């Protein structure tokens, strides 16, 4: 029912009205709420619907571009907001306007959100209306891919009860949420069909987290009936087996205030007690079509449309409060008039003073920090950690974690695997907020963890390539642990920890295994800072291996180097070191950065000492040494016949080519980009201008790959006029990498292919 008609119907109500409640004593019929509290609940419900009406008016006037309705969900919203504690985090979706208003969101903020005004503190015009982000109200940033926020909620539930302490120097000193918090997640029944929701419920049960999932079941996901999604039209049915392990499943009518008050309170108390998570299947109505582009009258049974209107929770709650003497028709009329006037005035003021976005403003929200910020944070990490490094490495040697007791920077050249392992030890030792997890990262798993005497007799695992070896032995099972084999779950867990204030080091075994977690990475992690108007950061490092050249043992999903997929994600740094020195320096920078970093480690380089005779091992950098993102390293800077621009393993192929070419009188400059997002544009352009001939070499494929982007830096700048030959690209062929050594040789760049390309550009 339209809110204006609803308000008039209640104002003019002629039915039975209960005797006015005198005083303000708790009412047993309303689960102990006082009349004043019930009036406040109803005020928030009506206010939310009036805001929705205003958004539609602004849409018609051209000031608002998007409207999505909350009608039918207001009651369960305000009941949840009332029953939760102020510090209980809320992860919702675009139907939770009434929750926002009851928790204290300002009307002026909602109007600025509607028109996309930069003055809006919550989202700053970055995202559509009804996608909230209110840190002071613990309403976490929302996004349109709604199913995945359940995975964040489960991750946060696990992070809150996680035993690892959080220091006073963390992003959120001491941890953002108390140990007895409840994580409340509101979600539409359609979104519960997503794999992320299924995994969220699993993790909540498996980790025994304090999560409440409130499923707003209006029966329709756009035009798809709930009957076509779940047995019996009930989204909780797939999870009934989990009740054996503490999951509480509840089904109730979210259009009935008395029933809702009882059930929501019971759910929150159950989760807070530590008994387990809760699934609430809540029957609600849909008072409007899915969104402005949808018209439910096209497909919904007219009798069902009528049912939705007659069971509108704002209408039913108003009638109940009238019949029980909590409100009178006159009071409801007065309430509506005041809300109507206030919304109109605030809306007009917002439109009158509208401030548009600029290019610079939008770009300022994508990433959160600069290199000076990172340097300052790294210095603070070192100071706060207060670790006697010499004593620490002596201890590590005594426990046989390392062959020598010396500081790593004194050991001389080492492999990249050794450097990453050393760096992870140092990060974990200096920063109590560091937690490391993923598939197979721990030394041990399962029952043997209860038997240290048995572990002492075994070497332990520590990653499929042994990069995380001995970290669990040293830092314990709470800080270094295996996860289920679920990449989306790994990143959902990482999100939970960053919301609580930790700095997760999440590992995904191979770059191509990120695919199941693509939505979580692209739509949740990489957008967090921008869609929250810079109010939240996603301080995490996602370590992955990538690439071929594993003596032909890789193929398809183990030899992927599709970096281009990830450099197309605003908000993500993509780092690809080629040696031990850079791996250590860049990993420190990544850890001290408050933005998400995809840290790509070439498997083929882990244990290489040389590449076709070219030394690969390098020294470990001094502990205060950081390498800025977007700062390339140049080999043979004095050479200017041809520039070979590359990153990762192919850097050493290019170096080998440069040695061969020197004997032929050709001077090849080799640029190791070190990071592919951001790119060192200045060094790329300088190489093009000074050499005139450029070859770009990547393990990525051409279509959508990094090579074309690097080439585009040159061809879209004035440096194109310095070129004496077209930019030549050496990439993987347009195929997945075939099995065997012959597959690598055919599918991937080789020294011979680079030398051929040099001959071609030199002869042009």
The profile of the biggest β sheet is:
7 strands, mixed
- Tally of DSSP β-strands: 21
> Can you identify the CATH class of the largest domain?
Alpha Beta
* Total individual domains: 3
Proportion of residues in extended strands: 5-15%
Helix content: 25-40%
Roughly how many Å is the radius of gyration?
Answer: 29 Å
Strand arrangement in the largest pleated sheet: 9-8-10-11-13-12-19
CATH-assigned homologous superfamily of the largest domain: Thiamin diphosphate (ThDP)-binding fold, Pyr/PP domains
Spatial gap, N to C terminus: 74 Å
Question: Average pLDDT across residues?
Answer: 94
Number of helices: 27
Shape: elongated
Unreliable stretches: none
Account of the protein in words:
- The chain is α/β, with parallel strands linked by helices.
- It has 27 helices and 21 strands.
- The strands form five sheets. A seven-stranded mixed sheet has the order 9-8-10-11-13-12-19, sandwiched between helices.
- Strand 20, helix 25 and strand 21 (728-732) form a beta-alpha-beta unit.
- Helix 2 (35-61) crosses helix 3.
- The protein starts with a helix and ends with a helix.
Concise account of the structure shown:
By secondary structure, the chain is an alpha/beta fold. It is 40% helix and 12% strand.
Labels describing this entry:
Rossmann fold, single chain, alpha/beta, seven-stranded mixed beta sheet, 764 residues, 27 helices, 3 domains
């Amino acid at each position: 029912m339209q809110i204006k008609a609803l308000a008039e119907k209640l104002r003019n109500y002629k039915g039975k009205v209960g005797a006015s409640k005198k005083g303000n004593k708790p009412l047993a019929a309303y689960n102990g709420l006082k009349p004043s509290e019930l009036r406040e609940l109803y005020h928030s419900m009506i206010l939310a619907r009036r805001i929705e009406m205003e958004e539609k008016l602004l849409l018609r006037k051209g000031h608002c571009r998007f409207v999505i309705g909350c009608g039918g969900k207001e009651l369960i919203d305000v009941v949840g907001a009332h029953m939760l504690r102020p510090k209980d985090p809320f992860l919702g979706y675009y139907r939770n306007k009434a929750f926002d208003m009851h928790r204290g969101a300002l009307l002026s903020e909602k109007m600025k959100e509607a028109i996309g005004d930069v003055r809006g503190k919550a989202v700053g015009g970055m995202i559509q209306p009804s996608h909230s982000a209110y840190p002071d109200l613990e309403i976490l940033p929302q996004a349109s891919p709604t199913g995945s926020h359940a995975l964040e909620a489960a991750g946060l539930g696990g992070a809150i009860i996680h035993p690892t302490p959080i220091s006073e120097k963390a992003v959120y000193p001491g941890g953002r949420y108390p140990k007895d918090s409840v994580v409340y997640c509101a979600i539409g029944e359609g979104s519960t069909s997503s794999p992320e929701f299924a995994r969220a419920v699993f993790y909540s049960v498996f980790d025994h987290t304090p999560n409440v999932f409130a499923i707003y079941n209006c029966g329709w996901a756009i035009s798809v009936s709930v009957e076509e999604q779940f047995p019996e039209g009930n989204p909780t049915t797939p999870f009934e087996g989990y009740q054996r392990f503490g999951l509480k499943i509840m089904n109730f009518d979210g259009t009935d205030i008395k029933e809702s008050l009882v059930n929501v309170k019971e759910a929150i108390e159950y989760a807070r007690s530590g008994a387990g998570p809760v699934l609430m299947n809540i029957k609600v109505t849909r008072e409007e079509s899915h969104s402005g582009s949808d018209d439910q009258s096209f497909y919904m049974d007219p009798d069902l449309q009528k049912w939705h209107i007659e069971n509108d929770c704002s209408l039913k709650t108003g009638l109940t409060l009238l019949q029980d003497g909590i409100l009178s028709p006159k009071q409801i009329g007065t309430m509506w008039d005041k809300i109507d006037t206030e919304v109109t005035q605030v809306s007009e003021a917002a439109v009158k003073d509208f401030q548009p976005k600029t290019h610079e403003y939008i770009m300022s929200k994508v990433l959160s920090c600069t290199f000076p910020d990172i340097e300052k944070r790294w210095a603070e990490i070192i100071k706060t950690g207060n670790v006697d490094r010499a004593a620490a490495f002596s201890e590590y040697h005594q426990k046989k974690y390392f062959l020598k007791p010396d500081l790593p920077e004194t050991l001389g050249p080492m492999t990249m695997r050794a450097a990453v392992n050393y760096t992870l030890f140092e990060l974990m030792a200096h920063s109590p907020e560091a937690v490391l997890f993923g598939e197979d990262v721990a030394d041990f798993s399962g029952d043997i963890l209860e038997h240290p005497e048995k572990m002492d007799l075994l070497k332990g695992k520590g990653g499929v390539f042994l990069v995380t070896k001995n970290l669990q032995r040293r830092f314990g099972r709470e800080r270094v642990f295996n996860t289920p084999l679920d990449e989306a779950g790994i990143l959902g867990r990482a999100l939970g920890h960053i919301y609580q204030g930790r700095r997760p080091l999440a590992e995904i075994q191979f770059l191509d295994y990120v695919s199941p977690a693509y939505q979580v990475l692209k739509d949740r992690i990489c957008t967090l800072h921008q869609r929250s108007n810079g109010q939240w950061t996603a301080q995490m490092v996602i370590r992955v291996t990538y690439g071929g050249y594993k003596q032909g043992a890789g193929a398809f999903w183990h030899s992927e180097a599709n970096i281009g997929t990830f450099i197309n994600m605003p908000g993500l740094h993509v780092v690809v070191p080629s040696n031990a020195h850079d791996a250590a320096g860049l990993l420190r920078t990544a850890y001290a950065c408050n933005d998400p970093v995809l840290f790509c480690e070439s498997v083929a380089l882990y244990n290489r000492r040389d590449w076709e005779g070219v030394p690969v091992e390098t020294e470990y950098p001094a502990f205060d040494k950081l390498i800025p993102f977007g700062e390339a390293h140049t080999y043979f800077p004095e050479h200017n016949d041809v520039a070979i621009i590359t990153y990762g393993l192919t850097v050493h192929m290019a170096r080998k080519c440069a040695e061969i070419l020197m004997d032929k009188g050709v001077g090849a400059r080799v640029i190791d980009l070190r990071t592919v997002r951001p790119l060192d544009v200045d060094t790329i352009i300088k190489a093009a201008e000074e050499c005139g001939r450029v070859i770009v070499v990547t393990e990525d494929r051409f279509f959508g790959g990094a090579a074309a982007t690097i080439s585009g830096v040159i061809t879209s700048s004035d440096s194109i006029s310095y070129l004496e030959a077209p930019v030549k690209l050496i990439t993987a062929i347009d195929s997945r990498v075939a099995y065997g050594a012959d597959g690598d040789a055919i599918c991937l760049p080789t020294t011979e292919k680079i030398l051929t390309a040099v001959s071609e550009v030199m002869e042009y």
